[in-house]
């Protein structure tokens, strides 16, 4: 089965990781249509840690879903290096997610019938050059809880398992939709630390959606969204480490 | 190493174990039926063939009045004839002590100083006869057992008018008498029919055929064309009073067992698929609900880059594991019940010296692949959902269910219903397709039960109609040959006889184009009271003199309807060939009779005033005296008592293919319960989260269970009318599969079947509800709320 998915071929790393032009997304039709994205333009250089801010309903998750290959745009284009995501077939998007993308969801989304370790193995199974599942859990400080089921873990622990699962495949890009939304400050900082490490040590491009504006201080680049468009884009001259973030 | 997805699979199966077992059981019983019936067909066929070959059963039988032995040589020279043997057969009456009615028997000769070339016997007990001792006989084992006779005992019998005493040398069986009935009767009764084998010389002397034979047995070469041989044999034997040679197809015992195998094969092809279809449907509902519940997880797997095919395969394995498990269990159960049926039922009706239940390995392969295929067919529909699901659902928070469409309905009910009841109505109204699928599931399951009950009723009705409405006599008398009406007057004068109704039975071959039927025509008076014919709507009909009235089964077999012309080849007397119109079609439940008005029949045969027997209405207080008097009438060949015939018919219906209906009724019940339980289980799994929320905000266990079980109750109530409708439909299909040439069953889904079916479903839902309620009570609030499914 797994052989059916072709191994990743070389990507041209000279391009920005993402190049977005006039991207639109409309849910529904006619008068009831919701315009979640109304022509977003954006460049994200390879290897950066990017924070995406914006009011609720401004289109952050929608943008993330399209860049992550989970959803399709209604118009415009989005490139991943030299590949045009918006032109890919379903199989192409699946291969893209399989080989390049890691996700951390707001609601953890662990498989309830699998242990922490098995949840990570679920991804390492189909990855080309993964970290060991135990090793990945070690990175998020959960080496002692590997055999617990999600129902036996706290919310923060579940979220850390989700991060271990996302980084275990050594993704090219890591998408995090409100990864700290349900966490206290200490656990939240731990989670951010892991994300920062992944960015610096593995060179992974990390894109974080958050409502906590303070998080922006640790990013290379901060993108502000409003009403389905990119309102503002700033580059931090001086970055804070995860531990220095105000909560 | 087991992959994480496979571990998820195993845990899912474990979590849903009871449900998985319920579905596997439904599949198992379908497979059980398939394997058992197929195995029985296979075993009966193979055993019959082996038995026929080992004991050299003749392939053509040629009865004749009296032909000198040298005629056999001319028969042997016919092209295609491999072996010939002449023998003597004759009717006899056996006197059983303390029994007023003598038992009819067939006497058959065995060659005196050689073993039989054809139609050898299987010696079950004792020894073969010593040809020098003329009083020695071999007796049919079934009859001997029924009367507790064993080698060494004596037996008194009347042959050709003279009474003699015999000594039993041994007990025998023969492939010729696998299924043994008295001449003119349809249903076997071990106690009421015997076969006596004895020395050829002694038997020839008893029937005045010394130096001659009255039946030729013929074996054919492999390439021989039976029809051509039969035609030539008939030509040779015509001048000696041949009544027409016939092949195995028309040999009574073989005809019955062939019919049994045919009907068993037919039901094995038509009934298990009904059960498998229900199982597939059930699996479809469960898997589609499961996928519905795991949308988030499926989206998640897709988000990780698992392909739709990989995810589909994961859920497909779930189907395969359950189907394969059910199929294997069904194979094992099928072999066990097949063995029980073969030994307990079939060997009782069909007298095989050995009957090994053996299933063709291909049947296992078929059963397993059919169950996996039909389960997968259900699964495939579901896989479409997996493929269509967008990975983006994994990113979304769980969407609160949209209840807006039911808002108006609930608002209208607001004043009438309390809060929990309104929740039930909301759920049902919000997902009408889902509710409909559940209603349909229970309805179909119930239909299966109601249908089987209807078929059970059909069997009872067949017995009742045959012996209470069609046949209203107390006894019938068969004469040794067609005689003039004088005998009837004699019967009428007997003390204790209230009414006498003569009949004339003529053996014939009926032909319509290429279709033919070997049987008899029943000549009855035009307005019979004791033995009647019924119209298709069950009212008595006149027996017409202007043409033949055919039973429905016969009309179907010959593919003929009222108004068409039928060729009638008479196999007695001067053997005329008549062309008669078919004037009417009658209902028949037992046998395939053809009726013709008595005097018109005699006229057509140019034998006016002949009768071959009579139906009697008796003063039951004097019946013993009547039977005693009948025994002393030389013209009487045999007497059959209606109540005994009814009992044997009932017995046959309770065994053989008839007994299968009980097995199926039990199975239908299991399936119905399986479906109801599944529906309850699924509802619970889907609602666990909501139910826990209810408990958290202060609802009691009872109120919480009410929300769940109330929904099940409403679904069950909707399902009942569907179940009744489905029952009527399925009953017709199953009854048709059960009907044979010998008896035809019409399904009767009456108020009783409907009542019992309804009650069964209600009880099943109460039990299933109770089982699920225990789970509601044990619901762990925290873990139910934590897991998002
Ligand atoms: N499946 C959908 N169908 C219809 N509308 C949708 C759907 N998903 C999102 N929307 C709408 O699109 C808009 C953008 O949604 P999106 O989820 O991208 O917002 P967001 O910026 O992530 O908000 P939040 O911070 O609250 O998560 C919203 O108005 C939302 O209601
Ligand atoms: Mg969002």
Please outline what is shown here:
The complex is a heterodimer of chains A (247) and B (789). Chain A is an alpha/beta fold.
Description:
The complex is a heterodimer of chains A (247) and B (789). Chain A is α/β, with parallel strands linked by helices and 247 residues long. Helix content of chain A is 27%, strand content 25%. Chain A has a single domain, classed as Rossmann fold, CATH 3.40.50. In chain A, strand 1 and strand 2 form a beta hairpin. In chain A, helix 3 crosses helix 4. Chain B has 789 residues and is α+β, with helices and mostly antiparallel strands. Chain B is built from 22 helices and 21 strands. Chain B has a six-stranded mixed β-barrel. A six-stranded mixed beta barrel of chain B has the order 13-14-19-16-18-17. In chain B, helix 2 runs antiparallel to helix 10 and helix 2 runs antiparallel to helix 19. Chains A and B meet through helix 1, helix 2 and helix 3 of A and helix 1, helix 8 and helix 9 of B. Adenosine-5'-triphosphate (ATP) binds next to strand 2 and helix 1 of chain A.
Task: Sum up the structure in keywords.
heterodimer, A: 247 residues, alpha/beta, Rossmann fold, 6-stranded mixed beta sheet, 4-stranded antiparallel beta sheet, 6 helices, 27% helix, 25% strand, disordered N terminus, B: 789 residues, alpha+beta, Barwin-like endoglucanases, 6-stranded mixed barrel, 6-stranded mixed β-barrel, 22 helices, 53% helix, elongated, binds adenosine-5'-triphosphate, binds magnesium ion
């Amino acid at each position: 089965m797994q052989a059916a998915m072709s191994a990743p071929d070389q990507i041209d790393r000279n391009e920005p990781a993402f190049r977005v032009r006039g991207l639109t997304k409309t849910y529904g039709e006619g008068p009831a249509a919701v315009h979640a994205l109304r022509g977003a333009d954006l460049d994200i250089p390879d290897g950066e840690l990017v924070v995406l801010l914006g009011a609720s309903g401004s289109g952050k998750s929608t943008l993330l879903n399209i860049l992550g290959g989970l959803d399709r745009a209604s118009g415009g284009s989005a490139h991943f290096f030299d590949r045009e995501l918006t032109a890919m077939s379903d199989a192409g998007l699946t291969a893209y997610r399989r080989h390049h993308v890691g996700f951390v969801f707001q609601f953890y989304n662990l498989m309830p019938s699998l242990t922490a370790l098995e949840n990570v193995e679920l991804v390492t199974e189909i990855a080309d050059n993964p970290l060991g599942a135990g090793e990945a859990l070690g990175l998020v400080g959960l080496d002692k809880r590997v055999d617990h089921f999600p129902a036996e873990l706290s919310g923060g622990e579940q979220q850390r398992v989700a991060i271990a699962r996302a980084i275990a495949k050594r993704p090219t890009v890591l998408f995090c939709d409100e990864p700290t939304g349900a966490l206290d400050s200490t656990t939240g900082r731990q989670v951010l630390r892991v994300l920062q490490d992944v960015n610096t040590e593995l060179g992974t491009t990390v894109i974080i959606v958050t409502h906590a504006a303070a998080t922006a201080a640790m990013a290379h680049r901060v993108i502000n969204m409003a009403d389905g468009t990119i309102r503002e884009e700033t580059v931090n001259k001086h970055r804070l480490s995860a531990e220095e973030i105000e909560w | 190493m087991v992959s994480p997805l496979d571990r998820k699979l195993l845990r899912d199966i474990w979590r849903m174990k009871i449900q998985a077992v319920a579905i596997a059981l439904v599949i198992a019983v379908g497979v059980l039926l398939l394997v058992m019936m197929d195995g029985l067909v296979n075993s009966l066929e193979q055993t019959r063939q082996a038995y026929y070959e080992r004991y050299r059963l003749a392939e053509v039988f040629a009865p004749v009045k009296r032909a000198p032995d040298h005629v056999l040589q001319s028969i042997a020279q016919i092209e295609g004839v491999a072996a010939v043997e002449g023998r003597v057969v004759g009717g006899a009456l056996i006197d059983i002590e303390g029994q007023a009615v003598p038992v009819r028997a067939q006497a058959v000769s065995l060659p005196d100083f050689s073993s039989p070339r054809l139609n050898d016997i299987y010696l079950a007990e004792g020894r073969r006869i010593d040809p020098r001792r003329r009083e020695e006989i071999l007796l049919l084992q079934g009859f001997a057992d029924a009367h507790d006779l064993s080698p060494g005992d004596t037996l008194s019998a009347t042959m050709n008018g003279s009474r003699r005493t015999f000594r039993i040398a041994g007990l025998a069986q023969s492939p010729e008498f696998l299924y043994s009935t008295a001449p003119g009767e349809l249903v076997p009764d071990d106690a009421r029919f015997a076969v006596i084998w004895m020395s050829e010389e002694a038997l020839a002397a008893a029937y005045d055929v010394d130096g001659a034979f009255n039946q030729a047995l013929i074996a054919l070469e492999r390439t021989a064309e039976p029809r051509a041989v039969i035609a030539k044999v008939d030509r040779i034997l015509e001048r000696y009073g041949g009544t027409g040679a016939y092949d195995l197809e028309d040999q009574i015992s073989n005809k019955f067992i062939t019919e049994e195998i045919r009907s068993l094969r037919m039901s094995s092809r038509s009934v298990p698929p009904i059960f498998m279809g229900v199982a597939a449907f059930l699996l479809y509902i469960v898997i589609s609900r499961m996928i519905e519940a795991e949308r988030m997880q499926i989206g998640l797997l897709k988000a990780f880059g698992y392909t739709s095919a990989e995810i589909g395969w994961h859920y497909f394995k779930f189907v395969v594991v359950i189907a394969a498990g059910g199929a294997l269990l069904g194979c094992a159960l099928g072999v066990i019940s097949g063995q029980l049926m073969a030994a307990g039922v079939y060997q009782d009706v069909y007298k095989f010296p050995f009957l090994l239940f053996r299933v063709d390995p291909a049947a296992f392969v078929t059963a397993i692949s059919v169950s996996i295929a039909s389960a997968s067919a259900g699964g495939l529909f579901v896989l479409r959902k997996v493929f269509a699901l967008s990975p983006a659902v994994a990113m979304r928070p769980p969407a609160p269910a949209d209840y807006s469409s039911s808002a108006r309905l609930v608002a209208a009910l607001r004043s009438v219903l309390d809060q929990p009841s309104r929740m039930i109505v909301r759920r049902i109204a919000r997902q009408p397709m889902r509710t409909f699928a559940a209603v349909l599931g229970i309805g179909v399951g119930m239909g299966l039960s109601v249908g089987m009950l209807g078929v059970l009723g059909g069997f009872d009705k067949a017995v009742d109609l045959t012996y209470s409405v069609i046949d209203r006599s107390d006894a019938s008398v068969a004469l040794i040959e067609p005689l003039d009406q004088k005998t009837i007057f004699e019967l009428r004068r007997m003390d204790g006889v209230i009414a006498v109704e003569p009949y004339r039975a003529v053996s014939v071959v009926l032909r319509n184009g290429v279709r033919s039927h070997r049987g008899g025509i029943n000549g009855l008076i035009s307005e019979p009271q004791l033995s009647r014919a019924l119209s298709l709507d069950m009212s008595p009909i006149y027996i017409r003199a202007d043409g033949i009235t055919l039973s429905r089964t016969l009309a179907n077999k010959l593919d003929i309807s009222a108004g068409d012309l039928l060729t009638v080849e008479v196999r007695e007397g001067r053997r005329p060939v008549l062309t008669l119109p078919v004037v009417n079609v009658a209902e028949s439940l037992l046998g395939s009779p053809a009726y013709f008005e008595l005097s018109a029949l005699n006229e057509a045969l140019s034998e006016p005033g002949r009768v071959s027997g009579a139906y009697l209405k008796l003063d039951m207080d004097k019946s013993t005296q009547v039977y005693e008097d009948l025994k002393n009438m030389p013209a009487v060949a045999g007497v059959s008592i209606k109540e005994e015939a009814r009992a044997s018919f009932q017995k046959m219906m309770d065994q053989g293919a008839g007994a299968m209906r009980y097995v199926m009724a039990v199975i239908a019940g299991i399936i119905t319960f399986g479906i109801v339980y599944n529906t309850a289980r699924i509802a619970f799994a889907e609602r666990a989260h909501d139910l826990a929320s209810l408990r958290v905000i202060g609802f009691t266990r009872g109120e919480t269970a009410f929300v769940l079980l109330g929904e099940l109750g409403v679904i069950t109530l909707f399902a009942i009318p569907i179940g009744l409708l489905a029952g009527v439909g399925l009953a017709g299909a199953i009854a048709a599969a059960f009907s044979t040439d010998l008896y035809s069953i019409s399904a009767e889904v009456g108020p009783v079947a409907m009542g019992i079916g309804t009650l069964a479903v209600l009880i099943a839902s109460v039990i299933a509800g109770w089982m699920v309620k225990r789970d509601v009570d044990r619901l762990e609030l925290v873990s139910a709320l934590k897991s998002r499914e």
